[in-house]
Amino acid sequence: MELRTLRYFVAVAEELHFGRAAARLHMSQPPLSRAIKGLESEVGATLLVRSSAGVTLTPVGAVLLDEARALLDQADRLRVRVATAAGAATLTVGLLGDSTDPGVRRLARAYRERHPGVEIRIRETDLTDPTCGLHAGLVDIALTRAPFDETGLVVRELRADPVGALLRADDPLARRESLKLADLADRRWFRFPEGTDRLWQSYWNGGEDREGPVVRAVQECRQAVLWNGTVGMTLTGHEPGAGLTVVPVVDMRPSRVVVAWRESDTSPLLRSFVRTATAAYRSA
């Protein structure tokens, strides 16, 4: 039973969908299906039930999932300990100006417990670079939000957060229970500078070209609304600050929290970080 095959199985079991698992593993679906069938033959039992609705785990599959996660975690720890002994135990992590996120705190605690000998260097970026320096080679891995240009990167979703319109508390729309993007069509929006990732800019502007003040940081977004009465998107779970409020926008897709790294990077430190991040955000 190979570790690679167990990684394939864990991906399918977590995604409960062969297509999404294949995309996550950066492989096509047929060899993934063959690998899972081979694993079922090896263990002598059905692990996954496939249907038009997706994939479900059998009781045997659930047991294997728990054991496979533990075995892969142990293998990652072994690789990290070897890397530490070899003097290569440093990982640079990019954060998108959101280090107060409880998920980040859980991840920091869990990774420290697993790998106390690994030095984590943090590079926090503003809202103009959603990859936190990945494309520029400034960080090894990023805890950030999608969407952005994923060329050459591997991206895994950790959580999805609802978003809403950030408004002055005395704005006429602030009394509404919910809004649609059309309700904000004639308003000035805060926006990011020219040259900001196109997909990122488009998402936070509700898919349209907008006019309004240019911002780079969360506090600048809030101040642009407070002083100018402009609008923009923010997370509904974030405290907006005095004089401001957030109204849910029902036709905006949730903001996806992701972990991202370069396809070419196979560092055991990175692999363990991804597994720890996935577990930390799953336990929320």
Structural overview:
The protein is α+β, with helices and mostly antiparallel strands and 284 residues long. The protein is built from eight helices and ten strands. The strands form three sheets. Strands 4-3-5-10-6 form a five-stranded mixed beta sheet, with helices on one face. Strands 8-7-9 form a three-stranded antiparallel beta sheet. Strand 3 (90-95), helix 5 (102-114) and strand 4 form a beta-alpha-beta unit. The model has no long low-confidence stretch (mean pLDDT 90).
Topology readout:
Blueprint: H1 3-15, H2 18-25, H3 29-43, E1 48-51, E2 54-57, H4 59-85, E3 90-95, H5 102-114, E4 119-124, E5 141-146, E6 153-161, E7 163-168, H6 198-204, H7 218-228, E8 232-235, E9 244-248, E10 255-262, H8 268-282
Parallel strand pairs: 3-4, 3-5
Antiparallel strand pairs: 1-2, 5-10, 6-10, 7-8, 7-9
Helix pairs in contact: 1-2, 1-3, 1-4, 4-8, 5-8
Radius of gyration: 21 Å
Number of discrete helical segments: 8
Q: Quaternary status of these chains?
A: single chain
Share of residues in strands: 15-25%
Which stretches are poorly predicted, pLDDT < 50 over at least 5 residues? Answer: none
Query: In sequence order, what are the helices and strands, one letter per element?
Result: HHHEEHEHEEEEHHEEEH
What is the structural class?
Answer: alpha+beta
Count of beta strands: 10
Overall 3D shape: globular
- For the largest beta sheet, what order do the strands appear in spatially? 4-3-5-10-6
| Main β sheet profile | 5 strands, mixed
- Average pLDDT confidence is 90
Tell me the distance between the termini.
31 Å
Helix amount, in percent?
Answer: 25-40%
